[in-house]
Amino acid sequence: MWRFLVVSSMVVTLATAGAMGCTSTADPFAGEGDGGTPAADAAAATDAITAPPEDGGAPGLRCPPKPARMVVLGDSITACSVVGGPSSANCVSKQVFDYVKATYATGVVYLNVAVGASQTAGIAQQLQRVPGGPGHVLVLIYTGGNDLSPYIFQTDAAAEEAYGKILPAIVQNWKDIYAFFENKTRFPDGVTVIMNNQYNPFDDCTAGPFNVTQKKFQLLHMYNVELRSISAGKAESSIIIDQYTPFLGHGHHYNVTTCPHYKPGMKGYMQDLIHADGPGNAHLAAQIFKGVDQLYKGCP
After folding, report:
1. Rg of the chain (C-alpha set)
2. Considering the entire predicted model, what is its pTM?
3. Where does 37-296 sit in CATH, by number?
4. Cα dihedral sign for 114, 181, 286, 142?
5. What pLDDT does residue 65 have?
6. When you count CB atoms within 10 A of the terminal residue's CB, does the N or C end of the chain come out lower?
7. Cα separations (Å) of 184 from 130, 132, 134, 189?
């Protein structure tokens, strides 16, 4: 699932920058604009991603029915391909299920149909394994990181062009996902969806040995803003979790002092190039717990 370099859910080129280069803490996209809209989009994306709702999700959605089922969709992040699988104690999805069950819905049932290496379009096949029926359904989705993975070693220009071409189909894929769950014949008691934006394995830093460019980080920011917009359009049934901001400083460059999000004592959470390790999965789950609390805490 390439946690996006076009970023973080999308992806891109390991370009050649200085071995210890990094993005600016004042303006991570300084110098990237060409006088057109990309620079403005990047600035807006920066504001939207770095200042998410404190509760971790969209404001306003409170006290949906307690779920009878929790359905998990997505790629290797939610399939937990590198940390023991969907039933492993290290799996972010299983940790979220356990939290929901222990805290809010003791009778909830777990169904994880996420598939490693899946792109957003692949969710359609996963939905074929989700049965309808009575009872409210809580849906956890983490997807997008594999959509631009073919462009990881290509140029910034190629990655940006690919992003522009692929994004409309991704947006349509999300519309289809919501349409599936909004079918009252299939799910008569309704559905609540928890989306997640994409973290950056490279801490918004262009340092070696990866030398990922600022353009890739710009695309990541823009993509995450698009995800937030999709969720906001379904505010009556959806929240989105900010995974990007809390993960900064825990990626591959967590101990590189010249990087913008370096802090002494930070821990790295990367299992491999794109996947979080066991503690990293716990970190991701902790962000989702905030969204779960937003939904159910204090509710009858």
Report:
1. 18
2. 0.84
3. 3.40.50.1110
4. positive
5. 98
6. C
7. 14, 9, 10, 7
